[in-house]
Amino acid sequence: MDWTKGWRESAWSELNQPWDVLVIGGGITGAGILRQCVRAGLKAALVEAADFASGTSSRSSKLVHGGMRYLKNAQVRVTLESVSEREYLLKQGRGLVNRLGFLYPCLEGDSMPGWVFGAGLAVYDLMAKQWSHRSYDTEDMRELCPLLTTPALRGGFRFFDAQTDDARLVLRLIREAVAGGGLALNYARVTALLKTQDGQVCGAVVRDASGESDREAEVRARVVVNAAGAWADQLRGQVGRTPRLRPLRGSHLVFSSSRVPLTRAVTFLHPRDGRPVFVLPWEGAVIYGTTDVDQGAHLPTDPAISAAEAEYLLEGIRFVFPGLDLTFADVIATFAGIRPVVNTGKANPSKESREHVIWEEDGLLTVSGGKLTTFRVMARDALKAARRRLGSLPFDPDAPVLDPLPLQAEALLAETRLPPAQCLRLLARYGVEAASAFCAEGEALESIPGTNYVWAELRQAARREAVVHLEDLLLRRVRLGLLIPNGGLDQMSRIRTLVQPELGWDDARWQAEEKSYAALWRTAYRLG
Could you give the CA distance from residue 79 to residue 355 in angstroms, rounded to a whole number? Predict the structure, then answer.
């Protein structure tokens, strides 16, 4: 199935057939499970209530990392798994998962002595089987990062982790799964679970949530996987289980790179409470976060940063970079995500474990917890748990999780005369279609100011990437809603010219979508 015009009707017509596995949830966990199911030769479908990656998986900190702070909390297994997966994804996801240099400034008054952090880095490097960290004195740290003008600086360290575009990673996994024979449908909400006479879950009732129709389907499967992230307890409630998750909100501020000119990430301990926070360059802008606060029982689709979180973050960045004199007026966007963390009752939410869990309850297989970096491990463990119902699987746990980049397309893309790094970036996002999509684009290959994107990416996403609403395009396919002032609303005339013909929307539909997007951005992505 291809995601060109008419693909939704085709997908709905296929849903009624029996499946080996039905995955509920289109974030990184569900996408990874679908990809591994297809590789194992299973007949698998995925349904997502909103857009792919519209929950936590487009609102993460964009890091593929080992999690140094988990060592401090004695979560050694999480760190070891994460470091191993980071190295694996750097090799597999060339152009989409990229190594990122970090600086850690040791500050007067830090709750953790610098030598303890250095010892942690040594363990971190040993886990990765490479020695890449180094210590620096105060003068050298300021030379490496002139923005570090805080008088509290007392030397520091350099080390390496990695970053990605979280939503694009999800989309690539899903698209490759679909190309391999799987089915994935966004805006398809599960309204009820189907059960056998003895009460075992055997499928789900799925309703069209796109606003285009009220169609519904009964989808039956031998295994039903609950990969709904922070919303997983809602499905578990349908089999009579009590909540076991502790939804935690992590919020971020976004600055333009001209206002915070960083070439590498900086992570430090917040002066108020000693929590690690970080500032990192990403897609042409700079992201700063994150918080770790209880979300409570209300789980909105589009959470927003609170005033207290914004004050907390601004206090930290002003302390470390006092010369920038940053204010809330410098923030071009915000975003917040809700982490699905298993509740163990710890008073401090940051102390909760980031290990993933798998629960099988009356035939519903719930996969939750974990982190973006370890999605492959979570998918592998989910398939192991599914063997009880599916039998032995021809599944190679070492099989590549991402398809290799097409070398022929790489050569063709070079004809665009784009820089090699940009060609690799486009290949990693659009795969074999990249050459045909971008080689004849002409002036649309110009960069979108303030970002790493080219204008033609908007047209390609609208044409072939399952866009149902304007927010899908501007917040998850091409991340203008996070990266440029006013969420891209000032550029809407050019965006409309590029994408309206591809989406097939008449003027009334476009105006409604633009109004809806503007309201969403101002509510959930703008400060104040």
Answer: 10
CB-side exposure of 289: number of CA atoms within 13 Å? Answer: 24
Q: Over the stretch 274-296, which tens digit does the pLDDT of each residue have?
A: 999 999 999 999 999 999 999 99
Residue 519 is encoded by which pair of tokens? Answer: 């309201």
For residue range 102-129, what is the model confidence (pLDDT) as tens digits? 999 999 988 888 877 888 778 777 777 7
Three-state DSSP class for residue 171: helix
Q: How far is CA 239 from CA 194, 195, 388, in A?
A: 10, 9, 19
Q: What is the mean pLDDT of residues 152-158?
A: 96
Q: Contact, 75 vs 353, CB < 8 A? A: yes
Q: What integer is the mean pLDDT of 393-399?
A: 72
Residues in the chain: 528
- Enter the pTM of the model: 0.95
Do strands 183-185 and 44-47 pair parallel, antiparallel, or not at all (unpaired)?
parallel
Please state whether the peptide bond connecting residue 290 to the residue before it is cis, i.e. omega within 30 degrees of 0.
Answer: yes
| Helices and strands, counts by H and E, the chain | 18, 18
Q: How many CB atoms lie within 10 A of CB 237?
A: 11
Residues 6+ apart with CB under 8 A from 159: 101, 102, 104, 121, 124, 125, 132, 133, 134
CB 201 within 8 A of CB 192: no
Report how far residue 170's alpha carbon sits from residue 376's, in angstroms, rounded to the nearest whole number: 12
- Judge whether residue 528 has pLDDT over 70: yes
Q: Is 338 helix (H, G, I), strand (E, B) or coil?
A: strand
The widest CA-to-CA distance across the chain, in whole angstroms, is: 72
Gap between the Cα atoms of 299 and 484, Å rounded: 27
pLDDT of residue 302: 96
pLDDT score for 291: 96
Contact of 423 with 414, CB cutoff 8 Å: yes
Give, for 521, the enclosing helix (H) or strand (E).
helix 507-524
Residues in Cβ contact with 242 at an 8 Å cutoff, skipping those fewer than 6 apart:
none
Looking at residue 334, what is its pLDDT?
Answer: 98
Backbone angles phi, psi at 267, to 5 degrees: -120, 140
Distance of CA 234 to the CA centre of its chain: 22
Structure tokens at 46: 């995925």
Average pLDDT over the chain reads 92
Distances (CA, A) of 484 to 285, 332, 452, 499: 8, 7, 11, 18
Closest CA to 55 of 402, 407, 338: 338
The pLDDT value given to residue 1: 54
